[in-house]
Amino acid sequence: MAPLTAAQRNLPNIIVTGTPGTGKTAHAEMLAERLQESSNGGEGQLKMRHVSVNNIVKDKECHEGWDDELGCWIVDDDKLLDAMEDDGVEQGGCIIDWHACELFPQRWIDLVVVLRVESSTLYDRLSARKYAEIKLQENLDTEIMDILLQEARDSYNEEIVVELRSDTPEEMETNVDRIFSWLEQWKKDHAPE
Q: Which residues bind ATP (predicted)?
């Protein structure tokens, strides 16, 4: 079966990305929950699912082992993409939650949300997670140097890349409102004629 384009999908795919500690999972879960609550079973509903790439890597063994120094899996990109294809991600309707985005084919993605956090806030969040010093510093450097934002801009059309602040719970709620509004507009723009 040929891959679907955005014009052929009934629902978009969104990546929520950012340095660990920026609130990716919280945003994705809150958005999926809000979509579920707003769903009334009608034809125009926005029924989307949260796809945690970390869970796929772990559960479907899309890795080459564990990195003790950084405390994370060494991801096998090919296995991961195959597992996501098998899971129907390219069909649309997914809120993809991961710390990177450049791996995913452009044809899969309709919106890239890059979450950003002030350095001291990020330091506090990662310290609370008991990150090893090397992992903590690597993630702080990534955030300070705009690496994930630049990767998103280099990998996708710039008009689908959105940078959002995620320093406070209020900002998170505002971000979810913005994404929800974008989804409603996407659905209107792609409604069958």
A: 21, 23-25, 129
